[in-house]
TrEMBL record:
This is ATP-dependent 6-phosphofructokinase. Substrate binds at T125, I126, D127, R162, M169, G170, R171, E222, R266, H272, V273, Q274, R275. Residues 2-297 form the Phosphofructokinase domain. One of its GO terms (molecular function) is metal ion binding. Mg(2+) binds at E103. One of its GO terms (biological process) is fructose 6-phosphate metabolic process. It comes from Streptosporangium nondiastaticum. SUPFAM superfamilies: Phosphofructokinase (SSF53784). NCBIfam families: PFK_mixed, PRK03202.1. Its main location: cytoplasm.
């Protein structure tokens, strides 16, 4: 069998572990050949690829990023390129293509699958917002990075009696904010699923200082917004991929809380540090299992699906189901945290 693999969209710790696992299972156990496309869908559209053998994946299990490179492709570019992609798959004699990516990549995977390509998707994102899988690899690493940052920020916040507003990733969902905020004992957690009320937030933070505490830590997901009419809020412009570029919720919240509370406040934006570097053991294991199961699905001819974690089992779910909706933080999860807004 000949299998193509690519990584697309924002990178994520664990991508290399999937690539390595695909190559090991396919080449060593099945005697397959594996072709890696460079820079995501772009590589498939342009036929830019290389052979991945055991040497190519040696030593990459614990490395961050992706040895294949990644990029975002606009949906229109992909739609126009379906025939080209099919042509390259046919020319290379590929029996299966394994795209590893997030929401956008899996939507593209569905498009190509509907057009007749033999696709087995592998979900990834630090945001953990892909429906149909309990967890995506990268999330555990990102939460760990954010939690360590929050632990560190507490001591400097206390020294200066400040309010620190820490912005974590999470375009549409607040999973990283919720988990890192819980793990670090943040005093308020603000997520996109629940537009915040600035009066409530001011009260929560203000109460801490009234109780004699010297600092407060607010974790906010980058996609969070105030409730309609709650405060003036500048929204970001949309980029070429149709994604909102955030105007900086932490900066705006920090200015507003400083003004309202009369306490020094500072915004801290963790940004891409949450996506970089070595994956945790949990993410390496999940990524490796996804890679293994994707190859097995390809051998069974189980196409148009994506690997998923359900409980402790890896299963295959239809791409159509996987891209139907995002996995948002459910209400019950908020109620478990005292400080959630
Ligand atoms: O991968 C998802 C994500 O981490 C989002 O949380 C964030 O909005 C986005 O990537 C940032 O991506 P970019 O690399 O385009 O800045």
């Amino acid at each position: 069998m000949r299998i193509g693999v690519l990584t697309s969209g924002g990178d994520c710790p664990g991508l290399n572990a999937v690539i390595r696992s695909v190559v090991h299972r396919a080449v060593v156990d099945h005697g397959d050949e594996v072709i890696g496309f460079h820079d995501g869908w772009k590589g498939l559209l342009e036929g830019d690829h290389r052979t991945l053998d055991l040497d190519a994946v040696a030593g990459i299990l614990a490395t961050g990023g992706t040895i294949l490179g990644s990029s975002r492709v606009q949906p229109a570019q992909l739609r126009d390129g379906v025939e080209r992609a099919k042509g390259h798959v046919a020319d290379l004699g590929l029996d299966a293509v394994i795209p590893i990516g997030g929401e956008g990549t899996l939507k593209a995977a569905r498009l190509l699958s509907d057009a007749g390509l033999p696709i087995v998707g592998v979900p990834k994102t630090i945001d953990n917002d892909i429906a149909s899988t309990d967890v995506t690899f990268g999330f555990d690493t990102a939460v760990g990075v954010a939690t360590e940052a929050l632990d560190r920020l507490k001591t400097t916040a206390e020294s200066h009696q400040r309010v620190l507003i820490v912005e974590v990733m999470g375009r549409h969902t607040g999973w990283i904010a919720l988990h890192s905020g819980m793990a670090a004992g943040a005093h308020a957690i603000v997520v996109p699923e629940r537009p915040f009320d600035i009066d409530e937030l001011t009260e929560v933070v203000g109460r801490r200082f009234e109780a004699g505490k010297r600092f407060a830590i607010v974790v906010v997901a980058e996609g969070a917004k105030p409730r309609e009419g709650s405060m003036a809020f500048e929204t970001g412009a949309t980029d070429v991929y149709g994604h909102e570029r955030f105007a900086g919720v932490a900066r705006q919240l920090s200015d507003e809380l400083e003004r309202r509370l009369g306490k020094e406040a500072r915004p801290v934006i963790l940004g891409h540090v949450q996506r970089g570097g070595t994956p945790t053991a949990y993410d390496r294991v999940l990524a490796t299992r996804f890679g293994w199961h994707a190859v097995e699905a390809a051998h069974r001819g189980d196409f148009g699906k994506m690997t998923a974690l359900r409980g402790t089992d890896i299963t295959l779910v239809p791409l159509a189901e996987a891209v139907e909706r995002l996995k948002t933080v459910p209400q019950e999860r908020y109620t478990e945290v005292e400080c959630v807004l």
